[in-house]
Amino acid sequence: MSEQLGLMPAQTVGPYLHIGLRWPDGPYVVPEGTPGACWIRGRIVDGTGTPVVDAMVESWQADPDGRFDHPDDPRGARPPALEGFRGFGRSETDGQGWYRLLTVKPGSLPEPDGGTEAPHLTLSVFGRGLLHRLVTRLYFPDEPAANAADPVLCSVDADRRDTLLASPASDGFRFDIHLQGDHETVFFAV
Amino acid sequence: MTTQDTRASGGLVLPRYRRDDVETHPSLLSPGYKSTVARAPRHPLIYLPQRLTEVTGPLLGEGRLGALDHDLTRQHDGEPQGQRIIVHGRVRDGDGRPVPRTLVEIWQANAAGRYRDARDTWPAPLDPHFEGVGRALTDDQGRYRFITVQPGAYPWRNHDNAWRPAHIHFSLFGRAFTQRLVTQMYFPGDPLFFQDPIFNSVRDPKARERMIARYDHATTAPEWALAYEFDIVLRGRESTPFEDEDDDE
């Protein structure tokens, strides 16, 4: 094993993260008007139940075919069939702690060992008081069979699994993120 | 099961990224930094094996950059107040490989220590010629370069007479979701390190030192700007199961 260089430690984004990280098109994983597009909205709350108004969520996901336009997808990088699909979204929270992302549901993904991962988004949460990003996953409520077979969901204690499940909303899905408390969201070490 | 079997069964061979050493990053719960108390999760993080979603990531290119995004001193008609500095460095992974064509975003306070934000109420002057925002892409060797001004220190009420050491926020994507990193660049010799719980949330003194830029006299611009070098190392890859084997059999 070769000598590893020392890694750069993480630090908080602080309260003014939106100065540098706000993109006008940040929340748009797909452009408005994309067929099948849905809004994912959610509130971030802390351990006291207070909305976190100075946080940011970033999302990353496969396209509806379950592919990534990335050279490390071993099936080969493939531009998405969906016009304007970026795979990546970024939303700061508003004055009430809400973030929002306009996207399309990703496809299922093949697993290295031959299994299948249910459609999901991976999310990073950044904010004041978070010295390192928090990583979680969002799964869809209308995929009960795929979710039941998903290896990541299955690795989580049954009584906490629902924290990774979005709920239906009028124009898409809702996914709240609890940093602490009785319903603390499951966060992952990647 | 051998690796050959994995491949024969149609399995995917994914790159894998080394897990970060536990001493590298700060503890999420660092009570000296008060905002962590109600925000750090109380359950331990759950180990997530890296799969397709984690070993890929957004590859954001030139489309995210404006012509002067790398030069924070030329984004307005007039020049900002303060000491001009060149900040440059290399982005590499833990194995020393450059991370090319990756987006680097920075934001910072102005020379007086104030952010351009309505919520920053510290009564230091705002500079009409300074936004405090920059973006750049690394080149093929992983190098980036910004021109900006030396940010000021500022008080922040975390504890009695609390002051943040001067710093520039850095955001990096790397090549994969596993490499995403947000950090802060500090300046050498800052007398405020001892009392800053954010800087000191990194327990390993060597890891803390990596967040301090190096004064780089060779890169200064005579009669114009000082210079600092800030190299950033993102996590490296594990060798794949096939890399060290004779794969021709």
From TrEMBL, chain A:
Keywords from the named record: Dioxygenase, Oxidoreductase
SUPFAM superfamilies to which the protein is assigned, alphabetical: Aromatic compound dioxygenase (SSF49482)
Region (Disordered): 62-87
Gene3D superfamilies cross-referenced by the UniProt entry: Aromatic compound dioxygenase (2.60.130.10)
Annotated Pfam families: Dioxygenase_C
EC number(s) stated in the UniProt entry for this protein: 1.13.11.3
CDD domains referenced in this protein's UniProt entry, alphabetically: 3_4-PCD_alpha
UniProt key word Oxidoreductase: yes
Any one GO MF annotation of this record: protocatechuate 3,4-dioxygenase activity
Protein name listed in UniProt: Protocatechuate 3,4-dioxygenase alpha subunit
Family to which this protein belongs: Belongs to the intradiol ring-cleavage dioxygenase family.
Residue stretches making up the Intradiol ring-cleavage dioxygenases domain: 39-180
NCBIfam families attached to this UniProt entry: protocat_alph
Biased composition (Basic and acidic residues): 64-76
Domain of life: Bacteria
InterPro entries membership: Intradiol_dOase_C (IPR000627), Intradiol_dOase_core (IPR015889), Intradiol_RC_Dioxygenase (IPR050770), Protocat_dOase_a (IPR012786)
TrEMBL record, chain B:
Keyword Oxidoreductase (UniProt): yes
Enzyme class: oxidoreductase
GO MF term list: protocatechuate 3,4-dioxygenase activity
Listed EC numbers: 1.13.11.3
Family note: Belongs to the intradiol ring-cleavage dioxygenase family.
Name this protein carries in UniProt: Protocatechuate 3,4-dioxygenase beta subunit
Residue ranges annotated for the Intradiol ring-cleavage dioxygenases domain, each copy included: 87-115
SUPFAM superfamilies, per the entry: Aromatic compound dioxygenase
Assigned keywords, A-Z: Dioxygenase, Oxidoreductase
Pfam families registered for this protein in UniProt: Dioxygenase_C, PCDO_beta_N
Species per Swiss-Prot/TrEMBL record: Micromonospora vinacea
Superkingdom to which the source organism belongs: Bacteria
